Amino acid sequence: MLDRKHSAPLYEQLKNEIQKMIKDGDLKPDDQIPSERELVEQYNVSRITVRQAINLAEKEGLVKRVHGVGTFVAKPKIKQELSNFNNFESTLQQQGLIATTKMLGSQVITSDFQLSRLLDINVMERVIKLELIGYGDEIPVVYYNSYFPNRVGEKMKQAAEKALQAEKPFSTLDLYRLDQEIGLHPTHVEQTFEAQSAHYPLTEILNVQEGFPLFRVTSIVYQDKTPLEYKETYYRGDKYKFFITRHM
Question: pTM of the full predicted structure?
Fold first, then answer.
């Protein structure tokens, strides 16, 4: 029950009660939580307190509202550590999801000014573009759009085809480790993170509606001072959350 003498406000205590029910397994993903009226009666609080508690639970990703239907327990998001690089398969396995990877396409293009600058190559040099889709339980959760200098791209394409044939889930970063024949050893990655709304063709690739929230991560993979890959990654905002541990 709620403690009215406690320093924490009642709505926060009620949110914690909902969180405990989820953690203990009394409420499972996609289960509907008790209605506002039921929570009012069960905890002897006002409807305003209940609404504040549900709003807080929604902000923390514990529940999701379906207009005109009710409030349901949200599925846990895929946690992506920022300070370390975990492979795609193990990241999803930690959330109880079965990972798969599909190649959307591969093509040879010529570098424009931007790509030549990012990959430190000459303008109009050959660049290999690889597009991959990562799935969790057969639902598209992430889209990788990678560009490689030709000498790197040929090796990466062969490694990707080998992994696909072996039905091994992967991202491009995994390929450097999975296939020793590549002979490339990334030393560091420069990345930027930003929020973005989904638009065509991302809506079709990730099976979301126009305006759906996405995380856009741009990466340049280096071996010492040499760029190996420029990549644009789009994570579904309802499936991923990123975290980092900072030491004082």
Answer: 0.74
Query: At 50, which CATH number?
Result: 1.10.10.10
The answer as to whether 4 is a domain residue is no
Of the pLDDT bands very low, low, confident and very high (cuts 50, 70, 90), residue 108 is very high
User: Could you tell me which residues come within 8 angstroms of residue 87 by beta carbon, excluding any fewer than 6 positions away?
Assistant: 170, 171, 173, 174, 177
Residue that is last in its domain, among 48, 73, 98: 73
Q: Crossing angle of helices 47-59/10-23, nearest 10°?
A: 50
